[in-house]
């Protein structure tokens, strides 16, 4: 039995309301022109990205004529680049994309060329290729199909209805390690273009009108987001680069101020103290005359003496007696090193909890246990890790600690003490290997979900500038 049902005939006038759902454009007035083969869409700030095998283009458009303050960012794979002659005979080489056209309750794919139509009355032209065989054209009238409204661009539903467009993302990292590779792998798996940028090879053009970041002799392109993986040894320069991206207006997963504050252990403890976050009793002094008082402020031995610049457990010493503590402090002072003295939380028994916070939520947690005979639980020092269920108090403490520094990605290390959770450190570049392997969770994927939510292409309303005079 054959299906003889004929498709419904759509009647088009010379102008119709259409939508392009793949591009996040719910309402657009389009001119129908059977004299043109390919459809054309108004686009500006056109920029290519992606690999040579899978090139993509991103662009922005003003969907409402005369409303240059309303901007929609879009992106799509490039299917071709071809020469197109305009109505006045001028030829232009344009990028061609494919997108879904929706009109009158029906949808079908069409090819679209990208060009600046700011001087045209309509933001889109529908050519012959877009018009199906069962479309009847009535060139003497318009709006045969249901009329849409530009009011949709001013509703709260506009943001949630937007597609997850392909993004161009930079990972600031000098290392080819597990975390960097996972960020590239997961980003590309989600259709984004992810570029690893060596932080120390970046340099900046600092000026009020066109601030830029350059790399290997070229200006870096406009990124949708930057994921900073700044090593401790280059914190000042690395955060300056992040600050430059912030100046340009790029979304940075972790802000420069938060990275700087978290790396300064003294300042970090002062910030957490101000926020009333539980932590081991801590003391700091510059004068060698204050050693006894310094120890007294923290409590009795055993004590932890920690260099302010310590990372991965290096420069952290356990002094089991008061005499040992005095010796370590004198040795550090002899090296003109800055350090903290902290109470040793005995009940933690060489274990700590790493809570991974993404976008204000604890998405994974693991218990780290130090190697035999080592009070430090760092995985880099031979410690082991396993997934752990945390308490409500521990979850709230981790979230609060990340919020103090404004970090959207943070590894919060805390101890289980009798008086409640005590934060040891907040890491702004937490490694992904240990926690992904121990918990089985896709942390990189959760991070990209947070990035996509932040830079989703909802309409941007630009502030109108007042004309002089």
TrEMBL record:
Signal peptide start-end: none
Biological-process GO terms, alphabetical: SOS response; translation
Sorted UniProt keywords: ATP-binding, Ligase, Magnesium, Manganese, Metal-binding, Nucleotide-binding, Protein biosynthesis, Ribonucleoprotein, Ribosomal protein
Cofactor: Mg(2+); Mn(2+)
GO cellular component terms attached to this protein's record: cytoplasm; ribosome
Pfam families: RimK, Rimk_N, Zn_protease
Native source organism of the sequence: Roseovarius faecimaris
Domain of life: Bacteria
Residues in ATP-grasp domain copies: 269-452
Protein name: Probable alpha-L-glutamate ligase
InterPro entries linked: Asp_endopeptidase, ATP-grasp, ATP-grasp_RimK-type, ATP_grasp_subdomain_1, Peptidase_aspartic_dom_sf, Rimk_N, Rp_bS6_RimK/Lys_biosynth_LsyX
Family as reported in the entry's similarity comment: In the C-terminal section; belongs to the RimK family.
């Amino acid at each position: 039995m054959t299906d003889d049902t004929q498709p419904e005939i759509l009647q088009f006038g010379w102008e119709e309301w259409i939508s392009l759902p793949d591009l996040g454009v719910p309402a657009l007035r389009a001119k129908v022109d059977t004299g043109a083969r390919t459809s054309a869409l108004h686009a500006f700030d056109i920029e290519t990205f992606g690999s040579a095998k899978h090139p993509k283009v991103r662009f922005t458009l003003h969907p409402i004529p005369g409303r240059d303050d309303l901007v929609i960012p879009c992106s799509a794979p490039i299917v071709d680049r071809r020469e197109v002659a305009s109505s006045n005979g001028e030829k232009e080489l344009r990028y061609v994309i494919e997108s879904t056209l929706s009109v009158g309750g029906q949808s079908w794919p069409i090819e679209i060329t990208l060009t600046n139509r700011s001087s045209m009355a309509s933001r889109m032209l529908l050519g012959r290729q877009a018009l199906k065989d069962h479309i009847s054209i009535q060139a003497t009238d318009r709006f045969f199909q249901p009329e849409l409204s530009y009011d949709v661009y001013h509703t709260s539903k506009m943001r949630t209805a937007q597609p997850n467009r392909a993004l161009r993302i930079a990972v600031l990292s000098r290392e080819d390690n597990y975390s960097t590779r996972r960020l590239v792998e997961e980003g590309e798996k989600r259709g984004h273009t992810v570029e690893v940028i060596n932080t120390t090879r970046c340099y900046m053009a600092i000026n009020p009108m066109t601030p830029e970041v350059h790399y290997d002799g070229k200006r870096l392109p406009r990124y949708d987001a930057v994921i900073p993986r700044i090593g401790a040894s280059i914190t000042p320069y690395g955060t300056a680069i992040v600050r430059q991206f912030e100046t340009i207006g790029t979304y940075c997963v972790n802000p420069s101020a938060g990275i700087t504050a978290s790396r300064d252990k003294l300042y970090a403890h002062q910030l957490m103290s101000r926020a009333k976050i539980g932590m081991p009793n801590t003391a700091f002094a510059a004068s060698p005359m204050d050693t006894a008082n310094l120890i007294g402020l923290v409590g009795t031995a055993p004590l932890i003496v920690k260099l302010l610049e310590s990372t991965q457990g290096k420069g952290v010493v356990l002094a089991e007696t008061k005499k040992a503590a005095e010796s370590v402090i004198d040795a550090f002072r002899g090296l003109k090193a800055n350090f903290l003295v902290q109470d040793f939380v005995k009940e933690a028994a060489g274990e700590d909890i790493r809570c991974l916070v993404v976008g204000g939520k604890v998405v994974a947690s693991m218990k780290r246990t130090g190697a035999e005979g080592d009070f430090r639980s760092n995985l880099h020092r031979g410690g082991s890790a396993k997934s752990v269920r945390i308490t409500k108090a521990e979850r709230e403490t981790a979230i609060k600690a990340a919020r103090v520094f404004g970090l959207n990605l943070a590894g919060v290390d805390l101890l289980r003490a009798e008086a409640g959770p005590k934060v040891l450190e907040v890491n702004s570049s937490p490694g992904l290997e240990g926690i992904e392997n121990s918990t089985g969770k896709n942390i990189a994927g959760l991070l990209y979900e947070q990035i996509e939510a932040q830079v989703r292409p909802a309409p941007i309303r630009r502030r109108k500038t007042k004309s002089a005079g």
